[in-house]
Amino acid sequence: MTKINYMKLINDKIIGDLNKSLGIGFLPQEKRSEVLTRVLELISKRAGMRIIEKFSSEEMTEFNKIPKDDFEQMEDFMVAKNPDAESVFENEAEKVKEELLDVKV
Predict the structure, then answer these.
(1) Cβ atoms within 10 Å, residue 96
(2) How many other β-carbons are positioned within 10 Å of the β-carbon of residue 71?
């Protein structure tokens, strides 16, 4: 199973569910990884936005000091400020999956 290094809040359960639900298992590995990467990036961005929109102005200032390419530090900060971050990611994954399945039908 493919796992994208900087998305540690995206767990194997989410990835497995997306693979199965979106029916991408028939695709060649390279294409499947490409599709999955794009979907996981969308989930990560949307979930991240849901988490940071609840930051105080002080937390936002602190978050903005993190280098934009340091995804691990960003995720660590989000988890520290929102212990429920993993469920936010799972919830957003479900929403994105449902949206994609609606389009697919």
Answers:
(1) 19
(2) 18
